Amino acid sequence: MTPSQPHISLILPCYHPPEGWAERIFSQYGEFCKAVSASIELIIVVDGDPDIIASPFLATLQQKISLLKIVTYTQNRGKGYAIRQGLAQATAPLIIYTDIDFPYTINSMTAVVHALQTEGYDIAIGIKNAEYYRHVPPARKRISKWLQGMIKAFLNIPITDTQCGLKGFKATVSPVFAATTIDRYLFDLEFVRNSYKAKIWQIKAIPVALHPNVKFRRMNYRILLPELLNFTRLLWKPQK
Prior knowledge:
Distance between the termini: 29 Å
Radius of gyration: 17 Å
Largest sheet: 7 strands, mixed
Oligomer: single chain
Strand content: 15-25%
């Protein structure tokens, strides 16, 4: 790693963020940097949100955060697509992605870094525990449990809780993530499934905790059928 190279690239996909998002990014980013004692390259990917593209808050963040990159495009494509665009701009040896409102505790995020940096894992995957589900709306909990059952029954991979919005991996694994093709909900599953198919066995599941004041956006049930089709394709589609 060169002297100017950051230790971590943190990717935040952004689409219709909650009120106060810019202030929260600045405060949580600062806390995270202190917690891991590392330089962190922050990559915000605006996923076709014209209000945010035109927002003065992006310029304010650029003034406050020196290691900030902003990626924008006009059409909403989905979280998976957004993270792939951010990954293309990442320069650090460790990659982490989470949601724009930093819903997970700093301790959860540092646990991901520790697994990669100190314990030597190639991939660290946040997973939900019973305490986590107490904060989740019932519909989301049912869908999450149903998907885990489907993964266990049909995909035969060691980790079935693939959809938590906090994950990290070494840059050496980046090509596996970059090769994913799902743009929306199941891109996480595709990444985990492809990692095992590529015989990347150093994968750690890390129980994570939500901030107590986190707010979930309303579930868009229209994505369920397309994602069911994506799941079906994963059963038959070979890894690239």
